[in-house]
Design brief:
Elements: H1 10-27, H2 31-38, H3 41-55, H4 60-105
């Protein structure tokens, strides 16, 4: 009986969808939704870790192929995360400038 080829866990596609939803919210300036969606990440990361651990028991060549797919999925997620961070930095820049300016005008007693 031939062993079924392992597939990249569906949770990676779910993580990409989550990142895309976070980016859409960030683009609209809906930071509450971004924060709410972000709360899903720790549980999703644990699930991905456990699923990936179970794949290691297959043919090493297949696992290497899956590892390439996994790395590409992670890179796509990180690229979206970078876009979200840039939007966040742009939104917080006026507040940061105000806080820095306020701090420089304070006098020590």
């Amino acid at each position: 009986m031939e062993e079924e080829s392992p597939r990249l866990p569906a949770e990676y596609a779910a993580a990409e969808r989550l990142a895309t939803a976070m980016l859409a919210a960030a683009t609209q300036g809906d930071w509450q939704t971004v924060v709410s969606l972000r709360r899903e990440i720790p549980a999703m990361a644990r699930s991905l870790h456990h699923r990936w651990e179970s794949i290691g028991r297959h043919d090493p060549r297949q696992v290497r192929q899956l590892e390439k797919q996994r790395i590409n999925a992670i890179r796509r997620i990180l690229a979206v995360d970078d876009q979200i961070r840039r939007l966040s930095d742009a939104c917080s820049a006026p507040l940061d400038r105000w806080l820095r300016g306020d701090a420089t005008t304070r006098a020590l007693n």
